[in-house]
Specification:
- It is a single chain.
- By secondary structure, this protein is mostly helical.
- The two termini are 16 Å apart.
- The chain contains three helices and no strands.
Length: 74
């Protein structure tokens, strides 16, 4: 609305990989993992869900760490 489309585009491109984490079947586990990494909770989940492990866990952490390393300055 203020004509800051460049800033909005930069924010969208940064946020999109994180938003995509909320569109998969294991979104609850991903949210809990992000909460843990932010120091605001733990990645434990209630049954029947299981904590993420292996390649999925590693990929999620890499996505989060990459996003935090490129946090846009708005």
């Amino acid at each position: 609305m203020r004509g800051e489309t460049k800033k909005a585009d930069e924010l969208y491109k940064w946020f999109l990989p994180l938003l995509r984490m909320d569109t998969v079947p294991k979104f609850v586990q991903l949210i809990k993992l992000v909460q843990q990494e932010a120091g605001m909770g733990h990645e434990r989940v209630r049954a029947p869900r299981c904590v993420m492990a292996g390649a999925e866990h590693k990929a999620a952490l890499e996505t989060l760490k990459a996003a935090l390393a490129k946090l846009p300055k708005l």
